[in-house]
Design goal:
Blueprint lengths: L23 H36 L7 H30 L12 H37 L5 H25 L1 H6 L2 E6 L2 E6 L11 H44 L3 H40 L3 H6 L3 H13 L1 H8 L1 H39 L1
Antiparallel strand pairs: 1-2
Helix pairs in contact: 1-2, 1-9, 2-3, 2-4, 3-4, 3-6, 3-7, 6-7, 7-9, 7-10, 10-11
Pfam family, one: 7TM_GPCR_Srw
Subcellular location: Membrane
GO molecular function, one term: G protein-coupled peptide receptor activity
């Protein structure tokens, strides 16, 4: 049900003959966007995988290692797991083969298996990401109320974040077990050829299996809507703390320059995290509503959800890839560490290579003269 929307043209997941066709606008949009979706997704995934590696290597440095940054490292790793399988999927189903093509070369049993793994992995990683976002908002809210002071308190917070991140990864994987059991490969025989795809769940019909219905409803509520609601609650509290309470605290601390600087730095970090939460809400909340409607409204899945599937995939991929840009824009410390670790290091390597080449040339000249 979630990114990647790999069932959009698969056998068994095509338009339902008992339902009316999608509106002409949605159908035209689906046909247009599917033509550019594959290439655009490959670019976004390649960029996102590289930049999330940057995020992990920078935020896990000893001088950058804080409880908040460890949450962001866990988020970056989950984003990488989402984007890595999407690249070969996009290449095969959108670039090598036309998105509208239905052929045995496109829908082999091997690619259907890969599709199934991608769907289950994406559902899991998205659940991990959104609950890490919730954990981050709760942790930041508690941190604003009771600021951490001293190296021992900081180390204790880091250990707590490691434990919470591990729990989120394990619990999200276990929570997706019904999803793993619901999605199955289906074989469709057409003449002398066989096509393989994901089984149609027949949502919002009399043929919907109870386990499939319960799985879709629980996924929409527990992996989408509830986390979004919690982010709104704690994000709103953070916004209030940064706005009204923050101004009062800065006025009180204005006499102590170091405390005032620390307060300003914490406010900037909180604003950056608020933007991360807003991006989650923009991406995940509409998906939760659409998934819920797909399970409850007859014909909605095939007529609305499926035509918008590629767009939702792409928005989710952009959200996975954009955090590096956000950190560079909103965090001077992150930006400086990136320059020091990657740009200046590259410049130094080029300088050393130039010196080495010059030394080799000088040595060859001496040998030639001596002979």
């Amino acid at each position: 049900m979630d990114t990647p929307n790999v069932t959009s043209a698969a056998p068994g997941m095509g338009p339902d003959m008992n339902n009316p066709a999608p509106s002409s606008f949605l159908l035209a949009f689906q046909q247009w966007f599917s033509g550019v979706h594959g290439y655009a997704s490959i670019i976004v995934c390649a960029f996102g995988i590289c930049t999330n590696v940057f995020n992990i290597t920078i935020l896990s440095r000893r001088d950058m290692r804080t409880a908040t940054n460890l949450f962001l490292c866990g988020l970056a790793f989950s984003d990488i797991l989402t984007m890595m399988p999407y690249m070969p999927f996009a290449i095969h189903f959108y670039c090598i083969h036309d998105p509208a093509e239905v052929s045995p070369e496109k829908y082999t049993e091997g690619w259907a298996t890969f599709m199934l793994i991608s769907v289950n992995l994406a559902a899991t990683t998205h659940t991990i990401s959104i609950w890490l976002g919730v954990s981050l908002s709760v942790f930041r809210f508690m941190q604003m109320r009771t600021p951490v002071r001293g190296p021992q308190a900081k180390q204790r917070s880091i250990q707590q974040v490691k434990a919470v991140t591990l729990v989120v990864y394990v619990a999200s994987t276990l929570a997706m077990v019904p999803n793993y059991l619901t999605n199955k490969i289906e074989r469709v025989d057409i003449g002398n050829t066989s096509l393989y795809g994901l089984r149609d769940l027949k949502l919002a019909t009399n043929e919907t299996e109870p386990i499939a219905f319960a799985n879709v409803i629980s996924y929409a509520i527990l992996a989408k809507l509830v986390p979004c609601a919690l982010m709104v609650i704690f994000g709103g509290s953070l916004l209030y703390s940064v706005g009204i309470k923050g101004k009062k605290r800065r006025r009180r601390l204005s006499s102590t320059n170091s405390n005032c600087k620390r307060e300003v730095r914490q406010s900037k970090t909180t604003r950056m995290l608020l933007v991360v939460m807003i991006l989650f809400l923009v991406t995940e909340f509409p998906q939760g509503i659409l998934i819920l409607a797909s399970a409850l409204v007859s014909g909605f899945y095939h007529n609305v959800y499926m035509p918008l599937g590629d767009l939702m995939d792409f928005i989710a991929l952009v959200n996975n890839a954009i955090n590096f840009v956000l950190y560079c824009i909103m965090s001077q410390q992150f930006r400086q560490r990136f320059i020091d670790m990657y740009l200046k290091r590259t410049s130094r390597l080029k300088h050393f290579e130039k010196i080495s080449l010059n030394n080799q040339s000088f040595t060859r000249t001496i040998v030639t003269d001596a002979s």
